[in-house]
Amino acid sequence: MTQKDITFVADFLTEHFNEAPELYNRKGKYFNVERVGQYLKDEDDDLVSPPNTEGNQWFNFLKNSTHLKESPLLFPYYPEKSLHFVKRQMEGVINQCLQKPADVIGQSVHQAVCMSLYKTSKSEDSTPQLFKLPFLWNDKTSNIHYVLFTILENSISKIYILRRHTDTSRSVSNGILAVDFGNFLNNSINESSDSRCYSCLDAHFYDDETVTVVLKESVEQEGKERVLAQLPLS
């Protein structure tokens, strides 16, 4: 060790582990603990060496503000407590804030419609994931909710579009429909091939009137074709 290292350690011990007679009657050790570690202890006891807030601009600002001093919007400060204590206090307040909206929203949600999309076996172990890439879109102009999704297995070349009016008492025509990509691109890609079939890798709404899809060739071969297509909802 160099003299610099020894000096550094000696300074650290001198600063943080001096005897503190004023702490003799308190629970715990009779000297100041390392000042960072005390904040991280998961206990409700007061800090052995609380911070000095004298001259802190924020505290002075609050103290001199008649409106902010008692404001319920400001989270209370606990200068004698560790961060774990403050974290638990804050979690309790946040949970309390979220509970009421959760109750109100939960009571207001109800089933508007029920559609049977597919059937699976009763054994959960053998049931594959058939519902894929649901994407939600809200058309605020016409007040319609859209859901894009695919169903794997027999419908790999189809994308389904489900739409519902935001006013559940109103209905829309073609509430659910399927777009079959299949081999509809053959004429534009390769006119002589009848074997090209496309499935949907991903789909998102581009805007209120357009859907963007990523298609791939279903044929198992190297250098599969990838197509980015934009389809008008009309």
TrEMBL record:
<dbReference type="InterPro" id="IPR024789">
    <property type="entry name" value="APC4"/>
</dbReference>
<keyword id="KW-0132">Cell division</keyword>
<dbReference type="GO" id="GO:0034399">
    <property type="term" value="C:nuclear periphery"/>
</dbReference>
<dbReference type="Pfam" id="PF23405">
    <property type="entry name" value="WD40_APC4_C-half"/>
</dbReference>
<dbReference type="GO" id="GO:0051301">
    <property type="term" value="P:cell division"/>
</dbReference>
<dbReference type="GO" id="GO:0070979">
    <property type="term" value="P:protein K11-linked ubiquitination"/>
</dbReference>
<dbReference type="InterPro" id="IPR056358">
    <property type="entry name" value="APC4_C"/>
</dbReference>
<keyword id="KW-0833">Ubl conjugation pathway</keyword>
<protein>
    <submittedName>
        <fullName>APC4 protein</fullName>
    </submittedName>
</protein>
<keyword id="KW-0498">Mitosis</keyword>
<keyword id="KW-0131">Cell cycle</keyword>
<feature type="domain" description="Anaphase-promoting complex subunit 4 C-terminal half WD40">
    <location>
        <begin position="136"/>
        <end position="234"/>
    </location>
</feature>
<dbReference type="GO" id="GO:0031145">
    <property type="term" value="P:anaphase-promoting complex-dependent catabolic process"/>
</dbReference>
<dbReference type="GO" id="GO:0005680">
    <property type="term" value="C:anaphase-promoting complex"/>
</dbReference>
